[in-house]
């Protein structure tokens, strides 16, 4: 069964420094988790960054490469539109009820990666705020417009120039801004077809996988009970195997074989 952080070993030096030292499942070597909460936050912000902060370079590089690759592929398949935060605004235009409702529940999974979650939240908050336009340049990670949503004139003109499917007649004047007459997410589905949903799925998987990366940064590697720690070639400085009688490997006091584990 996985070992919780409370069950991890603490060396006297680690206690003095207030650091948690986990045990490698490969060779039993100590892994200094430094500040686990900070490491988990860094891994949420950028996958694998927390492991790099802890000095676990190999594992951090693998996590960063695999999860960011999955995220980028998902965004590419979705035409750059598959990640956004959206909820139904309370009052887009007083006295003019919405005719479309868009709640982006998949964002809860995508939010497992901070480098896309934070900008998406900023874009949504600014679009639904008093400015009525995204704070960041362009419409990247901005939520789609719904019918009767009022936006700034500058943002409406920006959409008309950037998107060939949107025409000036798709907006009507609603001082001090302009009111949308179309459902933008429907345009995305019509243009991208099933690839929009496939891209959304890829980005959701990337976010959910990163939750495991965050747990690894916070609690260290999961150690199964009865693990023998066979080990593999290491780039993280694990202890060298000790030759035993007959050329085998001696086991330590805890029954582990001191292999060449990665120590991560």
What layout of secondary structure does this protein have?
Layout: H1 12-17, E1 21-23, E2 30-32, H2 36-45, H3 49-53, H4 57-77, H5 107-110, H6 114-127, E3 150-151, H7 153-162, E4 171-174, E5 177-180, H8 184-192, H9 194-219
Antiparallel strand pairs: 1-2, 3-5, 4-5
Helix pairs in contact: 2-9, 4-9
Considering the chains and any ligands shown, give keywords for the structure.
single chain; 264 residues; mainly alpha; 2 domains; 3-stranded antiparallel β-sheet
Describe the structure.
With 264 residues, this protein is mostly helical. It folds into 2 domains: 111 residues, no CATH class; 117 residues, no CATH class. It has 9 helices and 5 strands, in the order αββαααααβαββαα. The strands form 2 sheets. Strands 3-5-4 form a 3-stranded antiparallel β-sheet. Strands 1-2 form a two-stranded antiparallel ribbon. Helix 4 runs antiparallel to helix 9. The N terminus and C terminus are likely disordered.
Brief synopsis:
The chain is 40% helix and 6% strand. It has 264 residues and is mainly α. It folds into two domains: 5-76 and 209-247, no CATH class; 86-202, no CATH class.
